[in-house]
């Protein structure tokens, strides 16, 4: 309806089955276009990775998908409905886990926050919390405060809180950017297995090209100033993926090369 | 910037206007309230006949003398306890026992020992000023860069020179903060002592205005005392920013 | 506490006892007239006498009552008002500058105005004490609410939390360290203003009682009262420390 008024160029090409859909989205902040004419469709259950040079608007795009920002023009839709406000079935994992957790609540308390917001009766919460903490590998840390946990544990905790929302879509903003390499690889595999067990749609923003290829069903690369899509690569690597064999796969190396050249060209 | 100023002034100006209009429309006669215009007139005449200036001088004289007295004691003790850890630990119980005594509770003791006047007020202000200066100075001295202390050892400076040339200059920004906070306390305590009992200064003057049922003069004094407090605070903040840069401003909490 | 910390503590108590001994010595040798300085023995005797046969207990209760009522009223009003101002940017830009102007005002200057309005009554004392005690809490709460991590508000939005839930689950706990610091300062202010109001209005309490003792040159009773006021100051500050360590225990790992 309102959609036709903005004359969508690519909206017609958008498959009807898209769960998250951007139609000609432009966002202007402080007079400067951050994202321009972005159209994008993410299918249910798809794992989409977004890469790009810094300042290309990849985090902004994620925040638009969460409706933490409203587009200046264009439309963001979720399951066919316009996103005018954040919704509980879209969970967002922030990069700065240290700021996104409540320091005065224990691990269990932080997970409980999401259950309280969802309106789960108090009697059922304890069981759900135990299960969720177990799922993310924190079964013995329920009573710890975030300040007593390592960075990796805090990020696991944030993921547990997001899973407590029982989300249809998980938006992850460079979630492992601040973690060391070993912790990061472990968490990558855990996210893959968590997602494989459900049918959650994921948009995963990262600056790590290998991480994007390793995780995604599809990778898009954004060009900076203003942010727009520059490259789109379907990833046909076999699943389940493996830190050694997948990364040694010739197709993986080819994709990495292609993405690397794209980023280098976009920064020039 | 301009818009911020306007917003900041909007509330007080509109309140004063509403009050002025209300007071005029009901022909207010009250022992406790007066229209802003009457307050301005009262302030002007009190300034003109010098009463308010004499009172201000008395209050500030007592406050600053007390600040100087208590601040010096606090500074000396703070440096001593900051430098000598064992002495600090030995004095802990004594200090924690005396510090919580509310300064104003000493008023009757000061009264029988020193009588009415400047001396008892200075003594009470002094007692109140010792503590913030002592505690902040002690913390500042303790946290003097250890490298500087090593340098002073290597140079074989005498203890007196070490304090004079290394410790005090290094801790100076935070010592200034201590004195700035103590100056605010000094003014508050001085006015409080005058209101409670001592027949000098601004506190006594505002009490006299109240007892004379001169609401306009009383509120003029209230406004003036507020202005002095604000001016002292703003002046010291400005001085601190000038002397030590903005970085020192954020370290008030300790 | 480690063993050496215990030894230091004991030594520190001994030093304090030494000072009391010195005070006794000065009093015994009459270096300072007994009229001004009673020995600790006489002060202690006056304290015991005041509690067993005198009315010191009721005076103590009177002061505590003034202080606690005023402080409680100020806490409720200060935190509520601070929450409203602190959680709205618009309210902050209109009201905060006026608060900053009033902050350095010596609050005792409001006493004459309160006397003009209420007379020398309990209501006057309650007004003055709560007016004085509200500032530290109000300013601390405004600051605490304004300083809540914006990311947490985003978490609350994506969880679609209600406005009430955001205040009670996010903003208040986040501002708690500031609010508690403000409450501690307010307690000190409340005690001082209680004493001043008792002196001025002759209300039942330690402030009035020490003044009467001073006027009659009963220095032992005077010191007993002052010591008791010190004890109130000490115990209330201890209580606040306990509350802080209980409520802010989660910060252990941070510091």
Description:
The complex is a heterotrimer of chains A (268), B (254) and C (255). Chain A is an alpha/beta fold and 268 residues long. Chain A contains ten helices and ten strands. In chain A, helix 4 runs parallel beside helix 6 and helix 5 crosses helix 6. The longest helix of chain A is centred in the last third of the chain and has 18 residues. Chain B is mainly alpha-helical. Chain B folds into two domains: 30 residues; 215 residues, Orthogonal Bundle (MetI-like fold). Helices cover 81% and strands 0% of the residues of chain B. Chain B contains ten helices and no strands. The two termini of chain B are 32 Å apart. The C terminus of chain B is likely disordered. Chain C has ten helices and no strands. In chain C, helix 6 runs antiparallel to helix 8 and helix 9 runs antiparallel to helix 10. Chain C folds into two domains: 31 residues; 221 residues, MetI-like (MetI-like fold, Orthogonal Bundle), CATH 1.10.3720. Chain C is globular. Chain C is mostly helical and 255 residues long. In chain C, 80% of the residues lie in helices and 0% in strands. Chains in contact: A-C, B-C. Chains B and C meet through helix 1, helix 4, helix 5, helix 8 and helix 9 of B and helix 1, helix 4, helix 5, helix 8 and helix 9 of C.
């Amino acid at each position: 309806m309102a959609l036709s008024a903005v004359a969508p160029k690519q909206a017609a090409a958008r498959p009807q089955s898209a769960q998250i859909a951007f139609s000609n989205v432009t966002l202007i902040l402080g007079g400067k276009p951050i994202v321009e004419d972005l159209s994008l469709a993410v299918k249910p259950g798809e794992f989409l990775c977004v890469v790009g040079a810094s300042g290309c608007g990849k985090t902004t795009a994620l925040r638009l998908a969460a409706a933490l920002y409203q587009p200046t023009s264009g439309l963001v839709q979720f399951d066919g409905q316009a996103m005018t406000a954040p919704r509980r079935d879209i969970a967002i994992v922030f990069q700065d886990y240290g700021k996104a957790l409540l320091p005065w609540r224990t691990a269990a308390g932080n997970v409980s926050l999401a259950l309280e917001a969802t309106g789960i009766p108090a009697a059922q919460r304890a069981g759900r919390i135990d299960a969720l903490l177990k799922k993310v590998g924190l079964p013995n840390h329920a009573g710890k405060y975030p300040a007593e946990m390592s960075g990796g544990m805090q990020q696991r905790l944030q993921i547990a809180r997001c899973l407590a929302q029982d989300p249809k879509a998980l938006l992850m903003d460079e979630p492992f950017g601040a973690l060391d390499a070993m912790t990061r690889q472990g968490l990558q595999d855990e996210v893959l297995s968590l997602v494989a067990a459900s049918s959650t749609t994921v948009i995963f923003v990262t600056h790590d090209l290998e991480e994007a290829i390793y995780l995604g069903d599809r990778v898009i690369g954004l060009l900076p100033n203003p942010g727009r899509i520059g490259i789109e690569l379907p990833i046909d690597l076999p699943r389940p993926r493996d830190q050694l064999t997948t990364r040694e796969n010739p197709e993986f190396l080819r994709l990495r090369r292609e993405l690397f050249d794209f980023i280098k060209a976009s920064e020039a | 910037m301009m818009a911020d100023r306007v917003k900041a002034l909007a509330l007080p100006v509109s309140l004063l206007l509403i009050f002025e209009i209300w007071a005029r429309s009901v022909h207010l006669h009250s022992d406790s309230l007066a229209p802003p215009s009457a307050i301005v007139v009262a302030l002007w005449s009190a300034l003109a006949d010098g009463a308010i200036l004499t009172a201000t001088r008395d209050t500030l004289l007592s406050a600053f003398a007390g600040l100087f007295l208590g601040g010096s004691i606090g500074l000396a003790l703070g440096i001593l306890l900051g430098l000598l850890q064992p002495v600090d630990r030995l004095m802990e119980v004594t200090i924690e026992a005396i510090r919580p005594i509310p300064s104003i509770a000493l008023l009757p003791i000061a009264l029988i020992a020193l009588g009415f006047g400047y001396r008892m007020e200075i003594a009470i202000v002094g007692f109140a000023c010792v503590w913030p200066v002592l505690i902040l100075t002690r913390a500042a001295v303790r946290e003097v860069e250890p490298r500087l202390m090593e340098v002073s050892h290597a140079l074989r400076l005498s203890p007196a020179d070490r304090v004079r040339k290394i410790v005090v200059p290094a801790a100076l920004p935070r010592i200034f903060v201590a004195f700035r906070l103590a100056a605010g306390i000094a003014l508050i305590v001085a006015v409080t002592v005058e209101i409670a009992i001592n027949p000098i200064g601004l506190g006594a003057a505002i009490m006299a205005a109240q007892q004379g049922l001169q609401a306009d003069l009383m509120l003029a004094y209230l406004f003036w005392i507020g202005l002095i407090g604000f001016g002292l605070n703003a002046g010291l903040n400005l001085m601190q920013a000038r002397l030590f840069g903005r970085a020192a401003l954020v370290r008030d909490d300790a | 506490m480690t063993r050496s910390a215990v030894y230091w503590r004991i030594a520190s108590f001994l030093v304090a006892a030494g000072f009391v001994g010195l005070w006794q010595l000065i009093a015994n040798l009459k270096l300072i007239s007994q009229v001004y300085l009673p020995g600790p023995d006489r002060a202690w005797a006056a304290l015991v006498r005041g509690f067993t046969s005198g009315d010191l207990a009721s005076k103590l209760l009177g002061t505590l009552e003034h202080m606690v009522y005023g402080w409680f009223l100020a806490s409720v009003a200060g935190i509520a008002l601070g929450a409203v101002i602190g959680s709205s940017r618009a309210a902050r830009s209109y009201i905060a500058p006026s608060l900053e102007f009033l902050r350095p005002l010596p609050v005792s200057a409001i006493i004459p105005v309160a006397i003009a309005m209420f007379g020398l009554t309990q209501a006057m004392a309650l007004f003055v004490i709560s007016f004085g005690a509200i500032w530290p809490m109000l300013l601390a709460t405004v600051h605490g609410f304004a300083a809540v991590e914006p990311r947490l508000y985003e978490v609350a939005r994506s969880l679609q939390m209600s406005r009430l839930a955001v205040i009670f689950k996010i903003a208040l706990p986040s501002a708690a360290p500031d609010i508690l610091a403000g409450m501690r300062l307010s307690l000190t202010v409340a005690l001082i203003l209680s004493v001043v109001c008792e002196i001025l209005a002759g209300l039942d309490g330690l402030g009035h009682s020490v003044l009467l003792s001073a006027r009659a040159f009963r220095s032992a009773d005077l010191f007993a009262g002052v010591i008791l006021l010190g004890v109130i100051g000490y115990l209330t500050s201890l209580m606040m420390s306990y509350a802080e360590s209980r409520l802010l225990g989660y910060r252990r790992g941070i510091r």
